[in-house]
Design brief:
Blueprint: H1 2-12, H2 31-40, H3 43-46, E1 48-49, H4 50-58, H5 62-74, E2 82-90, E3 95-104, E4 119-124, H6 150-164, E5 184-187, E6 196-199, E7 208-211, H7 227-232, H8 241-252, E8 257-259, H9 261-264, H10 270-277, H11 280-285, E9 289-292, E10 313-319, E11 325-333, E12 344-345, E13 352-353, H12 374-382, E14 385-389, E15 394-398, E16 401-404, E17 411-412, H13 418-441, H14 456-468, E18 475-476, E19 479-480, H15 484-487, E20 491-492, E21 523-524, E22 536-544, E23 553-569, E24 587-591, E25 605-609, E26 624-630, E27 640-649, E28 656-666, H16 669-676, H17 686-705, E29 707-713
Parallel strand pairs: 7-8, 7-9, 9-14, 28-29
Antiparallel strand pairs: 1-2, 2-3, 3-4, 4-11, 5-6, 5-8, 10-11, 12-13, 14-15, 15-16, 16-17, 18-19, 20-21, 22-23, 23-24, 23-26, 23-29, 24-25, 25-28, 26-27, 27-28
Helix pairs in contact: 4-5, 12-14, 16-17
Protein name: HET-domain-containing protein
Domain Heterokaryon incompatibility: 207-379
InterPro entries: HET
Length: 714
C-alpha cells in the first residue's frame, strides 16, 4: 500500500521510472524526494512501518540499516504497529539536518503521540569529519558538558561579536552606541577580588543584566542598612549560586559590570524601587547582553550544572560518498512547537518571534519557571541580545536570529527597512499592544500590584517608538488614549487552555476599574470593532502614583457620552462552574428599563465578568447598566454584534459608575455565513435574512429604550 502511494507521488511529480529510488522505505534518503513527500503528505500519509525499514535493511539498503540502528539505540521496544518518518531538517525545531520521528499506533490506527515510544531523533555529522554518503545529513555540534567551558563561552562571544560589529554585524542589531550604566551595578572583579556594589557616575560602558527567578525564596538583597556594606565588598561565596554563576559568566566574557535586581535596587525603599522600575525599559534595552537563567528554579539553584547537560549521543559507522569509513551521530530531540508558548515580537518591526524557549531538546518540552514570570516578559522583549542557559544547552538570541550550541545553522527573523518599519508600527500598534497584554497577563506575578510596573518598561519603549514615528499618544493605566474606545473593550479570558482562568479585583487600588490592570486574570480583545457613532470619549485622566508614569496610578477616570440602559444579569447554570450558579464565565444578560421589563429580548447577549472563579462581585438581584461602545465587527459581517461595558452605579453620585464586566451579543455565525457564501443568490436564504433583520430590529428597540447620557467611569 505504501509502495502504491510512493509510485503515485512520483508519477504526479513527473519523475520517470529510471529516476525512482531503489528503496521505497527510505527513498534512498534523497533530499528532493523527501521534500516532495513532506510537502505532499502529512505525517501519517508518508510514514512507513518499522517493519518496512527492517526489510529494507535486510535487503541491503544501507540507509535503512543506518536508520534502524539509530532507532534501536534509543528505543528498546520495536514492536509493531510503529510508524517512522524521515524529514529533511525541521523548520519547527530549527534543525538543519536529518530528523527522524517514530510514533506508535493505537488499535484504531490513530497516532499515539503521548506514548513513551514517541521519539524524535536528529542524525548529524561533526564539523571536520568525513561527510557521509547522504548529503541530507548535515553538520551539528555536540553540546559542551560545562556551560562555563571555553567552548561554550566562545559560542556566546562569537555570536555577540557577529551581532554588534558595525561593519559586518547584523543589520537589525549592529550598534556603535554607548551603554549608559544603571544607577547601581555589581563590579564583578576577578578570582582574586570580591565583587562590590558600584554607584555609577554617568559613564557609558557595556554591562550584563541577569534575568532570574526569585522562586519563592528571598535572594541576597540590598537594603538601606546594608547599602554601605555592599559598596565595600560582597564576598563571592556569600552570593547565592545563581548569582555566583552570573558573576562567573560575566568575568569569562570579559565584562566588568553586572546588574542584578535584588542587589542593585534598595529593596526596602519604595522610592528607590519606583524610580528604578521606571528605568527597566532602558536598563534592559541598553544591556550588552542579558543572561536568562532558565535552568535555575530560584536564586540558590544555579544555572551552570554540568551534570544536567549529559545528553546521549550514539556513533553509527557508515560510508562516505567515496566508500571510505566514516561516522554519523544520533541524539534525541524534542518538538520546538511543544515548548513554552511565550511568543514575543520585535518591538521595532512588529514581527512575532517564535518562542521564549530557544533550545530544542526532547526534555525541554515544558517551559522553564523563569519564562512563566511576568517580570521576565519585558526583560526578554526589550533586551537586544539574550543568552539562555537551559538545563541542556546554551542558546543565543538577538533581533536578527537565534542559535543553539547544538546546531550550526541559524534562525533568521525578517527585518524591515526603517521607513516601512515606522509605518508598520503605527498601523499595527493596537494589535501588537493587545497581543502583548494578552501574553503578559498569562504569566505569573507574586504581587498583583506589580501588574503595571512589571510592564512599564515595554510601555515606555512603545511610547518612544510612537514618538519616533511622528505621532503622539498618552499611556493610561495599560491603555492608550488614541485607542481608548477600543481599549476599553477588553474581557477576562476564561478558556480552558489559559493557565489562570480565574480573576479577582485587586484589593489595593492600582488602576481604575476600566483598566485591565485592576484585575488579576488573563485579558483579551476581540477583533476589529466598529465604534458606535453614539459613543464619545470626552475626557480621560490618570494620575501616576509616584515617579513612574507607566506604573500604578493613584486615581483615574474616563468621562464618556453614550447609550446606557439598565440590565439584569441572569446566571446560566450551563456555563457556570460546578460550584454553583454564579457569574464565573459567559453569562447571558437580559435588558430591562423603566419603561418595560419584557422587550426587547436580548437573551443572546453574553456577559463576561471581570471577577470570576472563587470570588464574584456581581449579583442577579442588583441593577446594572449596559454602555454601548461598539456596533460590531465589520470583517465578520457583524457576527459579533454590539458590545460594551457592564457598569455599576455609584450610590453617592448617580453620574459615576465602575466597571464590572464586558458584554456582547453573539448572533449564530451560520446566519451570516450562509448568506455570504450562498452560490444560488439570496432567494434561498430569506429566512436567514429575516433572522438577522429581526435581530437588528431588537437592537433598534434597545436604542429606543436606552438613554444617551454623560457619565464618568472610575
Amino acid at each position: 500500500m505504501y509502495d502504491s502511494r510512493v509510485n503515485a507521488i512520483l508519477r504526479d511529480a513527473g519523475i520517470s521510472p529510471n529516476q525512482q529510488p531503489q528503496c521505497h522505505a527510505c527513498v534512498d534518503l534523497d533530499r528532493q524526494l523527501l521534500r516532495l513527500f513532506n510537502v505532499r503528505r502529512g505525517f501519517g500519509e508518508n510514514a512507513v512501518r518499522i517493519s518496512a525499514v527492517n526489510a529494507g535493511s535486510s535487503g541491503g539498503c544501507q540507509a535503512c540499516a543506518m536508520l534502524l540502528k539509530a532507532v534501536k539505540a534509543f528505543l528498546d521496544d520495536l514492536q509493531e504497529p510503529l510508524l517512522i518518518q524521515v524529514h529533511d531538517g525541521d523548520t519547527i525545531t530549527l534543525s538543519d539536518t536529518l530528523t527522524l520521528t517514530v510514533v506508535p499506533l493505537n488499535e484504531d490506527e490513530t497516532l499515539q503521540y503521548d506514548s513513551s515510544r514517541h521519539i524524535r531523533l536528529e542524525i548529524f555529522s561533526l564539523p571536520g569529519s568525513l561527510p557521509s554518503k547522504w548529503d541530507i545529513i548535515r553538520l551539528a555540534n555536540i553540546v559542551a558538558r560545562d556551560a562555563s567551558s571555553p567552548e561554550s563561552v566562545e559560542f556566546v562571544q562569537r555570536h555577540v561579536n557577529s551581532c554588534t560589529t558595525v561593519s559586518t554585524g547584523h543589520s537589525g542589531c549592529a550598534s556603535s552606541r554607548s551603554f549608559p550604566l544603571p544607577t547601581r551595578v555589581l563590579r564583578v572583579g576577578d578570582d582574586h577580588n570580591h565583587p562590590y556594589l558600584y554607584e555609577s557616575q554617568g559613564e557609558s560602558i557595556k554591562y550584563i543584566a541577569l534575568s532570574h527567578c526569585w522562586g519563592g525564596v528571598s535572594p541576597l538583597i540590598t537594603t538601606k542598612a546594608t547599602l554601605d556594606q555592599r559598596k565595600q565588598a560582597i564576598p563571592y561565596f556569600s552570593l547565592p549560586k545563581t548569582f555566583q554563576d552570573a558573576v562567573c559568566i560575566t568575568r569569562k566574557l570579559g565584562v566588568e559590570y553586572l546588574w542584578i535586581d535584588s542587589l542593585c535596587i534598595i529593596q526596602d525603599s519604595p522610592e528607590d524601587w519606583a524610580r528604578e522600575s521606571a528605568r527597566m525599559g532602558s536598563l534592559y534595552s541598553n544591556s550588552w547582553i542579558t543572561i536568562a537563567a532558565d535552568a535555575a528554579e530560584d536564586s540558590n539553584t544555579g544555572f551552570l550544572r554540568p551534570q544536567q547537560r549529559v545528553t546521549k549521543v550514539v556513533e553509527i559507522p557508515c560510508e562516505s560518498s567515496d566508500g571510505a569509513e566514516t561516522y554519523v551521530y544520533v541524539r534525541e530531540k524534542g518538538s520546538y512547537a511543544n515548548r513554552a508558548r511565550a511568543d514575543l515580537i520585535d518591538p521595532d518591526t512588529g514581527y512575532v518571534l517564535d518562542n521564549a524557549e530557544i533550545t530544542h531538546r526532547r526534555k525541554q518540552r515544558h517551559r522553564s519557571r523563569l519564562s512563566t514570570r511576568a517580570w521576565v516578559f519585558q526583560e526578554r522583549l526589550l533586551a537586544p541580545r539574550t543568552v539562555h542557559y537551559s538545563l541542556e544547552e546554551t542558546a543565543y538570541e538577538c533581533r536578527s536570529g537565534r542559535w543553539c550550541e547544538c546546531t550550526i545553522s541559524e534562525r533568521v527573523v525578517p527585518q524591515l527597512p526603517g521607513r516601512r518599519r515606522n509605518r508598520l508600527f503605527k498601523d499595527m500598534l493596537r494589535d501588537k499592544w493587545n497581543w502583548i497584554v494578552l501574553e503578559y497577563t498569562r504569566l505569573n506575578l507574586t504581587y498583583g500590584t506589580d501588574r503595571l510596573p512589571a510592564l512599564s518598561g515595554i510601555a515606555s519603549y512603545h511610547q518612544e517608538r510612537i514618538a519616533a514615528s511622528g505621532e503622539n499618544d498618552e499611556y493610561l493605566a495599560g491603555l492608550w488614549r488614541k485607542d481608548l474606545a477600543m481599549g476599553l473593550l477588553w474581557r477576562v479570558y476564561t478558556d480552558d487552555d489559559i493557565s489562570s482562568p480565574t480573576s479577582s479585583r485587586l484589593s489595593k487600588y492600582c488602576a481604575p476599574s476600566w483598566s485591565w490592570a485592576s484585575v488579576t486574570g488573563t485579558v483579551h480583545w476581540e477583533d476589529e470593532y466598529q465604534i458606535s457613532t453614539s459613543f464619545v470619549i470626552l475626557d480621560s485622566v490618570c494620575t501616576p502614583d509616584g515617579p513612574n508614569r507607566f506604573g500604578n496610578v493613584c486615581n483615574g477616570y474616563v468621562k464618556v457620552q453614550g447609550y446606557i440602559a439598565a440590565v439584569q444579569l441572569e446566571a446560566d447554570i450551563s456555563v457556570a462552574l460546578p460550584a454553583g450558579d454564579d457569574f464565573r464565565g459567559e453569562t447571558p444578560i437580559n435588558v430591562t428599563s423603566v419603561q418595560t421589563l419584557t422587550e426587547p429580548d436580548l437573551s443572546t447577549t453574553v456577559f463576561y465578568p471581570d471577577v470570576c472563579g472563587a470570588a464574584v462581585e456581581v449579583s442577579p438581584t442588583v441593577e446594572y447598566h449596559f454602555l454601548l461602545i461598539s456596533e460590531g465587527i465589520p470583517d465578520l459581517g457583524n457576527e459579533l454584534a454590539p458590545a460594551g461595558l457592564i457598569l455599576k452605579r455609584s450610590p453617592s453620585d448617580p453620574s459615576v459608575f465602575s466597571r464590572v464586566g464586558y458584554a456582547c451579543t453573539v448572533i449564530e455565525a451560520e446566519h451570516f455565513w450562509r448568506i455570504q457564501t450562498s452560490e444560488d443568490g439570496l432567494d434561498d436564504d430569506i429566512d436567514e435574512i429575516r433572522k438577522v433583520a429581526a435581530y437588528r430590529k431588537s437592537w433598534k428597540m434597545w436604542i429606543d429604550v436606552a438613554s444617551r447620557e454623560i457619565l464618568t467611569i472610575v
